[in-house]
């Protein structure tokens, strides 16, 4: 689910949503300062996102509501001259260059060079001298401008959530030329009104454009916060990503620390320690996520409490499990277990009897769980009959990867210890052929099938939350003792920016 989107989206879509906060927040006592999730975005990501500035700046200029400009001045021989500019609209706009810089005073500095813009509208003027009649005229005008724009976006925190303040905004005008009725040659009227209008026009443009940029920044921040909140919530399971401490801005990266507490109905878990250190993350990739073992373990507990750790297998899949080896001995064992019943009339249920225990180690994620397996046959018109029930403690080590918009879970190691075994074909439990077959089946086929189902379910969940909309490049998932690091590069999903501009403006 932590600069500029060709300015603003980059700042507020990814950077600001994941990196909430500044020293404006007051954090609670020590147990609540523990960090479960860390996000770091580096300078290369800022430079990439900054390439998307143009569309948002154009939206800010075009969406600005320029007021009518009026003024009056005494002119020798002409008396008082009153003027008004109305219906001011942006016509053409282009941006030459945009730079972004991370400031350690908790701000992001954006310098946009040579914004050339053309404004069109109507000029109305009138004058009344001592011997002139009172006259009013109306002509179309066009203003050519060249502007530098500087923004200092400050990250402030209110109630553990981000407020992006882009009000520190400056416009520097290098050119401001007035043309009347398409006449490009300077005349007395053009010279007169250029002198009158330029200063007032600069103030109006600065005020309205900067106000619109700040408004757009807040809209984007709120939009992204909503996206983030949705990404880390699925029905009753919520991950608290509010700030655990101040965000950190260095010349090479921006980093935020989040609580990472998992909330489920009346269940919540507070932890008081964190093994995070800034040295665990580098600056070679664009985006990093650090997740604590505690956060992942709490998610597994919430999934268990929400009864999600249940798998039902029937039909061809069940048949594939029990016919892993097409041998005469295996066929005899299966016939004993199912009592000659067709697989189409059978169903297997696998579920976790207790909260899984998760441990993060260099070799992978170690999951230890007490699992029950129940196989029933469902003869037509009759009640179901349980032919097999097992409880076993399973420990698996898996390594995770993400490729082609799918989560991939690779089984590294596994062990099985039977705790309970009941089989109608072997009520005494003395038939070694049945237990040996089931031991092999669970190890060789059953565990991979459960892992594949978890893999598919998690991929589906992440796609529903919109992860597949992002262009993720060469992601790496690295496990270490007590934590996991996800590091990746990305290309900018331009359609997300266009979608926001279409819906929000």
UniProtKB/TrEMBL annotation:
Chief place of localization: secreted
Record-linked SMART domains: BPI1, BPI2
Source organism of this protein record: Smithornis capensis
Gene label: Cetp
Residue ranges annotated for the Lipid-binding serum glycoprotein N-terminal domain, each copy included: 40-267
InterPro entries assigned: Bactericidal_perm-incr_a/b_dom, Cholesteryl_ester_transfer, Lipid-bd_serum_glycop_C, Lipid-bd_serum_glycop_N, Nase_comp1_CS
Protein name: Cholesteryl ester transfer protein
Gene Ontology biological-process entries: cholesterol homeostasis; cholesterol metabolic process; high-density lipoprotein particle remodeling; low-density lipoprotein particle remodeling; phosphatidylcholine metabolic process; phospholipid homeostasis; reverse cholesterol transport; triglyceride homeostasis
Function statement: Involved in the transfer of neutral lipids, including cholesteryl ester and triglyceride, among lipoprotein particles. Allows the net movement of cholesteryl ester from high density lipoproteins/HDL to triglyceride-rich very low density lipoproteins/VLDL, and the equimolar transport of triglyceride from VLDL to HDL. Regulates the reverse cholesterol transport, by which excess cholesterol is removed from peripheral tissues and returned to the liver for elimination.
Superkingdom of origin organism: Eukaryota
Keywords per UniProt: Cholesterol metabolism, Disulfide bond, Glycoprotein, Lipid metabolism, Lipid transport, Secreted, Signal, Steroid metabolism, Sterol metabolism, Transport
The reaction(s) this protein catalyses: cholesteryl (9Z-octadecenoate)(in) = cholesteryl (9Z-octadecenoate)(out); cholesteryl (9Z,12Z)-octadecadienoate(in) = cholesteryl (9Z,12Z)-octadecadienoate(out); 1,2,3-tri-(9Z-octadecenoyl)-glycerol(in) = 1,2,3-tri-(9Z-octadecenoyl)-glycerol(out)
GO molecular function: cholesterol binding; cholesterol transfer activity; phosphatidylcholine binding; phospholipid transporter activity; triglyceride binding
Pfam families: LBP_BPI_CETP (PF01273), LBP_BPI_CETP_C (PF02886)
Cellular component GO terms, alphabetical: high-density lipoprotein particle
Signal peptide: 1-24
């Amino acid at each position: 689910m932590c600069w500029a989107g060709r300015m603003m989206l980059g700042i507020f879509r990814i950077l600001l949503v994941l990196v909430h906060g500044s020293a404006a927040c007051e954090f609670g006592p020590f147990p609540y300062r523990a960090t479960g999730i860390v996000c770091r975005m580096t300078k290369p990501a800022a430079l990439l996102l900054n390439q998307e500035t143009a569309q948002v700046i154009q939206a800010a200029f075009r969406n600005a509501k320029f007021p009518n400009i009026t003024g009056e001045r005494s002119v020798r021989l002409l008396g008082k001259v009153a003027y008004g500019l109305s219906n001011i609209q942006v016509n053409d706009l282009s941006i030459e260059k945009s730079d972004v810089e991370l400031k350690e005073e908790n701000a992001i500095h954006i310098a946009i060079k040579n914004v050339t813009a053309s404004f069109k509208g109507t000029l109305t003027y009138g004058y009344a001298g001592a011997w002139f009649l009172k006259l009013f005229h109306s002509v179309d005008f066009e203003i050519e401008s060249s502007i530098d724009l500087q923004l200092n976006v400050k990250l402030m925190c209110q109630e553990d959530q981000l407020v992006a303040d882009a009000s520190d905004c400056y416009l520097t005008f290098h050119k401001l030329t007035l043309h009347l009725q398409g006449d490009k040659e300077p005349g007395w009227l053009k010279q007169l009104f250029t002198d009158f209008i330029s200063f007032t026009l600069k103030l109006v443009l600065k005020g309205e454009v900067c106000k619109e940029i700040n408004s757009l920044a807040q809209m984007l921040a709120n939009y992204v916060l909503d996206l983030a909140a949705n990404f880390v919530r699925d029905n009753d399971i919520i991950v608290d990503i509010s700030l655990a401490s101040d965000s950190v801005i260095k010349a090479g990266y921006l980093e935020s620390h989040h609580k990472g507490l998992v909330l489920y109905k009346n269940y919540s878990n507070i932890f008081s320690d964190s093994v995070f250190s800034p040295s665990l993350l580098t600056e070679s990739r664009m985006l990093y996520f650090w997740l604590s073992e505690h956060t992942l373990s709490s998610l597994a507990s919430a999934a268990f409490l929400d009864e999600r750790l249940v798998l039902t297998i029937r039909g061809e899949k069940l048949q594939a499990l029990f016919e892993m080896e097409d041998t005469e001995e295996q066929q005899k064992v299966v016939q004993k277990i199912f009592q000659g019943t067709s697989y189409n009339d059978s169903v297997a249920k696998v579920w976790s009897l207790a909260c899984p225990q998760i441990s993060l180690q260099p070799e992978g994620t170690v999951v230890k769980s007490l699992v029950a397996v129940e196989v029933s046959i469902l003869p037509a018109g009759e009640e179901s009959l349980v032919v097999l029930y097992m409880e076993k403690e399973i420990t698996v080590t898996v390594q995770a990867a993400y490729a082609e918009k799918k989560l991939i879970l690779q089984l590294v190691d596994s062990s099985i210890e039977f705790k309970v075994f009941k089989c109608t074909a072997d009520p005494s439990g003395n038939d070694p052929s049945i237990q040996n077959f089931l031991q092999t089946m669970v190890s060789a086929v059953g565990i991979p099938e459960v892992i594949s189902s978890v893999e598919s379910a998690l991929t589906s969940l992440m796609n529903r939350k919109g992860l597949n909309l992002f262009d993720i490049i060469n992601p790496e998932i690295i496990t270490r003792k007590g934590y996991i690091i996800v590091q990746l590069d990305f290309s900018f999903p331009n359609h997300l920016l266009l979608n926001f501009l279409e819906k929000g403006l």
